[in-house]
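[step 3/7] fold_predict: job queued, chain A
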Amino acid sequence: MSKTVSLRGKVVVITGGARGIGLATAISLAKLGAKIAIGDIDEKTVKESGTEQDFDHYGRLDVTDAQSFGTFLDDVERELGPIDVLINNAGIMPTGRLVDESDQITRRILDINVYGVILGSKLALSRMLPRRNGHIINIASLAGETHIPGLATYNASKHAVLGFTDTLREEYRGSGVAVSSVLPTLTNTELGSGVAAPKGLPAAEPEDIAAAVVRLIAKPKAKARVTRAAGAMSVFVNLLPQAMGDALGRSMGSAQTFLDDVDADQRKAYEDRVRHS
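[step 4/7] structure written:
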């Protein structure tokens, strides 16, 4: 579909756009003619990515700060025009047992992954509703439909994003503003570094998520699960009795994937950055 879809002139804002899924999505949309604005808490990297890709707007964005978020969107609209699509992509995924998770990290996960999505959606709605036009796409996770040891707070955050997004979709049905969620499986980005994909379900590439976003913008729907195989497995497991679903997850390695099986050396750079930046 990406070869035939034209997004020429659409103004798209992507949070967490300096790297990973956010950057891959920005590149894909730019190739289809969209005007791209990326924001990221990492000011140095967002400037590097924005400059290298020649995006229309880029800069520092703290999704947990209402003034930062509001000012960023104001600047985009002043320079590029009304925002057509907001992609709430910013998120972090520290791993480990809950008992070892500091209160600071717990709050940080919830602030970025949940409050940032709620804040961004609220600010976008206030701009889109008067025009009766727009699309909010929230990047959730297949972790939001299941439970994975080692990711308790992250799982909670993605469950929250899915519930929030589904509710907005109904709350603003008929308003002209579409609301969708994207549910990636483990993806080959820095966020997934040092973690092996479940048995029989290869990790996705960031370009796979980007392609799903393109399809959603072209033809809005409630959810897009990526990959199809991982999405089908998630739906299937949720149809099983709980004990059977849990046993199937364990047989695929879920009990240890984000705990004892993590390659701490490979993951160290990411964990240090999201815990201390």
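[step 5/7] annotate
The two ends are 38 Å apart (CA to CA).
The first helix runs from residue 20 to 31.
exit 0
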